[in-house]
Amino acid sequence: MPLTALRTFEERIERQLRLLELKKTIIERNIGRHIRLFEQRRDDIGKRIEDQIRQFERKRGIRLDDEVRFIRSWIERPLSIGAVTPSSKMLARAMARYVDPHSDGPVVELGPGTGPVTAALVEAGVDPSRLVLVEFNPAFCRILRTRYPSATLVQGDAYSMRRLLETLLLQPAAAVVSGLPLVTKPMRQRLRLIRDAFDLMLPGAPFVQFTYSVASPLPHRLGGFTVEASERIWMNIPPARVWVYRKN
Ligand SMILES: C[S@@+](CC[C@H](N)C(=O)[O-])C[C@H]1O[C@@H](n2cnc3c(N)ncnc32)[C@H](O)[C@@H]1O
Question: What are the CA-CA distances from residue 74 to residues 42, 85, 143, 204, 239 (Å)?
Fold first, then answer.
């Protein structure tokens, strides 16, 4: 190709690259604007919900601090919180019922949030010093630390439970109770979590999980564990079901 033709060709490519760069900057600016708008709207809605809760509290003379904290966290990270309000007493008690308070070994709770299931476990007779709570939300960890000072609190990712707990647990766990929003995770990650949990638990010990969905969050047909389900618990927003898995 003659030299002038080559130069023209290079100039054309450069012009196209500059145009592409310009378009990229415009798109980035637009995305940034949309994110800021979304965050603004999300914060407004959050504030409005909080105001309504506070008005309700004043009218009824009650405090709903846990609900407010929960909604705030949900607005910030809806997928990792997975629920708009803490579990009801009915659901928390239904979960605690699967844990034998007289069993030996630690009772691990994954995603305790503000602690309704923790409270039900203690109410059912589980000594708080046996509890190992794994929660990654710092605001919830502060609440749990004050409410359950004798429990072991691990601020971290429950999906890394093997790494977090294998040296911490001095005995195999008597139960693992999970409030994690499992269904927001890919199946491979859910299966790895339950496999890791079984490795840290006594043979036949329960892995207790609640879900809002109708189906089991783990497929029965894979085998290797038994599955048991509670009745649907209607006294919860939204209604939920408790699933219990035990290694064969
Ligand atoms: C649906 S809420 C349940 C909270 C509480 N157990 C209840 O029943 O009200 C899920 C909880 O799991 C926590 N969580 C979600 N993903 C987590 C993770 N990877 N590691 C630790 N905690 C997690 C959230 O911060 C939240 O507290």
Answer: 11, 9, 16, 34, 18
Q: Which of 119, 106, 219 is nearest to 171 (CA)?
A: 106
pLDDT tens-place string over residues 35-59: 788 878 877 877 787 788 778 888 8
| Residue 20 parent element (H or E) | helix 3-60
Q: Which of 88, 147, 180 to mutate to test the pocket of ligand 1 (most atoms within 8 A of CB)?
A: 180
Q: What's the 25 CA to ligand 1 centre distance in angstroms? A: 38
Q: Is 50 exposed, middle or buried (0-12, 13-18, 19+ CB in 10 A)?
A: middle
Pocket test for ligand 1, best of 68, 70, 72, 80 (most atoms within 8 A of CB): 80
Determine the distance separating the centroid of ligand 1 and the alpha carbon of 232, expressed in angstroms. Answer: 20
If one residue of 118, 136, 185 were mutated to test the ligand 1 pocket, choosing by the most ligand atoms within 8 A of its CB, it would be 136
Q: What are phi and psi of 66, to 5 degrees?
A: -60, -40
| pLDDT per residue as tens digits for the range 6-31 | 888 888 988 888 898 889 888 888 88
Amino acid residing at 56 = F
Residue 113 alpha carbon to ligand 1 centre in Å: 5
∠ CA 175-179-180, nearest 5°, is: 110
